[in-house]
Design brief:
- By secondary structure, the chain is of the alpha+beta class.
- The protein has 6 helices and 5 strands.
- Strands 1, 2, 3, 4 and 5 form a 5-stranded antiparallel β-sheet that branches.
């Protein structure tokens, strides 16, 4: 049995530790207990058109925030802050990308798979991510998660499937699902040891 999961909401702030998205190595209760793999789809957008769209949304969010609606709907304030960060990144020369993550889970039977889906969603929820299970477009999502199989048209994935989010290149680099230990350089190799409490030995 296979269960494709996709990211519905990204965290407001991310420290860049993608290792935590596969579970904590020293805590068995906070691990993904079935075979899995994580992929990221990144499509470079038409910069001029995408920047114009972001600019329009930034104006709308700013007008809503200054109109007093933010007192009734606090989410408007967060939305404006998000667009402020986006516009600042664009002014610094960042590029806009359409980004999406997929978490693919495998299990020998549906019961084990359902339990793994719930635990994985709970793990990501604790990190500030919100996952959704792709029940009716699972095959499309699974195929799209394979290497070099992403859709060529960002509009289809963004507006029809609603699985890609517009982020700047700095955020895309921080969200890249590359997980590995730092081994140092050939001149100065490093061995990592952890204590019983999970802290690195200095």
């Amino acid at each position: 049995a296979v269960a494709p999961l996709s990211v519905q909401v990204y965290p407001d702030q991310w420290h860049g530790a993608m290792r935590e998205t596969i579970g904590r190595s020293l805590q068995s209760m906070e691990q993904i207990g079935v075979p899995c793999w994580i992929s990221m789809t990144a499509l470079r957008l038409d910069q001029q058109r995408a920047a114009a769209q972001v600019g329009k949304k930034h104006v709308v969010a700013s007008n809503q925030a200054f109109s007093g609606l933010v007192r009734l709907i606090p989410m408007i304030g967060k939305k404006k802050q998000s667009f402020d960060t986006m516009m600042e990144a664009l002014s610094d020369g960042r590029h806009l990308w359409a980004l999406g993550h997929q978490v693919i889970l495998y299990a020998p039977d549906p019961a084990t798979l359902n339990a793994a889906v719930e635990s994985t969603m709970a793990l990501y929820r604790g990190l500030g991510w919100q996952l959704q299970r792709d029940r009716y477009i699972g095959l499309v999502q699974w195929l799209g998660a394979l290497p070099m199989q992403a859709v060529n048209d960002p509009t289809e994935a963004r507006h029809k499937l609603r699985r890609l989010k517009t982020l700047h290149s700095g955020a895309a680099a921080a969200l890249l699902p590359a997980v590995a230990d730092w081994k140092g350089t050939p001149q100065r190799p490093v061995l990592l040891y952890t204590t019983r409490s999970g802290q690195l030995v200095g």
